[in-house]
Write a structure and sequence with these properties.
The protein is of the alpha/beta class. Helices cover about 40% and strands about 15% of the residues. The strands form eight sheets. Strands 1, 2, 3, 10, 11 and 12 form a six-stranded parallel beta sheet that branches. α6 links the parallel β4 and β5. α2 packs parallel to α5. It is elongated.
């Protein structure tokens, strides 16, 4: 029986009414009473307000669950997408860390531990956050929205497990959606049956197992709508709690269902390629799989991002040039994608292997110094698109293993980037029109960065253990 995993997560964010504190406490207690741990993503401002209101009853109730981070100020201006939107790769990282780290500090002060996940407020997704999350030691990204996704299931992007785009086309080519929100209608007569139907549909479609992501905002139990302080009648709030509990019981009634938190995801979806040494023959097989396309590769148990393969092949070729033979193997390391889209590049030519080796050594130095792929690779006097270089260095790595030596020359040929298929441009444009954004907001740089960092995309493969 294929196991289905259910992730209950909550954006604990509302600072407008004190009753939302009680809602967070009540929902947390309902889960605890049923032996379920949720993932509570706290806004820094919310954490500080609970501290100042001396709501340690709420803090203690949440402490039984996984704790996540949901930005420092949530709805304050500028929104994360607004302040990162105009910035480049490095400046965006600096701005995110500077503005949001105080929220991390507030959460660590109250709960005594580092958050295990991050998720942006609303549609404020940005790729610049991923290097900072890794720096902070946050291994997962739990959200209901993002610009990139893969097969409606968790995936790796930016070196982190993501649940932020679990809708679209699944692994069997079907329209699917394995994420939904228990919303403001909790307590209404039709709400419980509706959410049971959504869950049952997800459960039925996951024939081979997988994850169902279920969100809630505690304030939705007590407020009538977003951006207001209009309160629901007490009877409707109480009915909402009852429906939430009944829904949890419904989920738990399935023998093949197991609830998990964000902190369970790294063990559930382990990255078995990271920092592993692959043999020369394994590298040859991976290199043969590249062809003239930029794409991830996968087996039943492992997956490699194009950025990881780029680094592995390049280091392997450089090591071969140093030794004059076939290296024993090479380590697979994480690298971010390029910082910007290259211009003035040249492709479709043949270069002597000596010039190619010089470029390989320089590229290894760049990877070591910057932790990301270069925008383009210089061979001789020309700049080569990073995708075209990727294909060429893969062919060169395969040739070394097959023939025991470097080739005499290397062909640089045009490639196609299939990873762009997984970046949701429609979602990005919809995000910019969100009610949270200023009228007329656009962020084409965020979309460009999403495409560049798609080099880091790969499936998160469910562990059978």
């Amino acid at each position: 029986m294929a196991r289905k995993y259910v992730l209950f997560w909550f954006d604990v964010e509302d600072c407008s009414v004190t009753q939302s504190d009680d809602a967070a406490k009540t929902l947390a207690q309902i889960l605890t009473n049923h032996g379920v741990r949720g993932t509570m993503k706290l806004v820094g401002q919310k954490a500080r307000m609970m501290r100042d209101r001396i709501r340690y009853d709420v803090i203690d109730a949440l402490n039984r669950h996984a704790i996540g981070f949901h930005t420092n100020w949530h709805g304050g201006r500028p929104q994360p997408a607004e302040y990162m939107g105009p910035l480049d790769w490095l400046d965006g990282q600096f701005e995110f860390e500077m503005r949001e780290e105080p929220g991390i500090d507030s959460i660590r002060e109250l709960w005594g531990r580092m958050p295990v996940t991050y998720g942006q407020p609303g549609s404020n997704w940005s790729p610049q956050v991923f290097p900072i999350l890794r720096k902070w030691g946050i291994p997962t990204y739990v959200s209901g929205f993002g610009y990139a996704g893969l097969r409606c299931q968790p995936f790796y992007y930016g070196g982190i497990i993501n649940t932020s785009h679990m809708w679209g086309i699944d692994s069997k080519g079907r329209e699917a959606r394995h994420v939904f929100t228990l919303g403001f209608d909790l307590g209404e007569p039709q709400a419980l049956d509706h959410y049971k139907m959504l869950f049952d549909g997800c459960h039925e479609m996951l024939e081979d197992g997988g994850l169902i992501s279920i969100a809630n905002h505690p304030c939705q139990l007590v407020l009538e709508r977003w951006f207001s302080t209009d309160m629901k009648p007490r009877e409707l709030t109480q009915k909402g709690y009852e429906q939430f509990e009944t829904f949890v019981q419904h989920v738990l009634s399935f023998d093949d269902v197991q609830t998990v938190t964000a902190e369970d995801l790294p063990a559930l979806y382990p990255d078995l390629t990271r920092d592993r040494v692959f043999s020369a023959h394994e590298i040859m097989a991976l290199a043969r799989g590249v062809g003239d396309q930029v794409h991830f590769q996968e087996t039943d148990t492992m997956a490699w991002s194009a950025a990881e393969l780029f680094g592995t092949f390049t280091r392997f070729v450089a090591a071969s040039a140093r030794s004059g033979g076939v290296p024993v193997g090479e380590t697979c390391l994480h690298h971010d994608g390029p910082a910007r889209t290259a211009t003035d590049t040249v492709s479709d030519f043949v270069t002597p292997v000596e010039e190619f080796i010089i470029s390989a050594r320089a590229t290894v130095d760049f990877l070591d110094d910057h932790g990301r792929l270069p925008d383009a690779v210089t061979i001789g006097s020309v700049r080569v698109p990073v995708g075209d270089y990727y294909s060429a260095v893969a062919r060169t790595a395969a040739h070394i293993v097959e023939n025991g030596r470097l080739p005499d020359q290397v062909a640089i040929r045009p490639t196609s980037n299939r990873l762009l298929d997984y970046v949701d441009e429609e979602a990005a444009h919809g995000a910019w029109r969100s009610v949270m954004m200023l009228p007329g907001f656009e962020a084409p740089k965020l979309l460009e960065q999403a495409r560049l960092q798609a080099w880091t995309l790969k499936p998160a493969i469910l562990s059978e253990g």
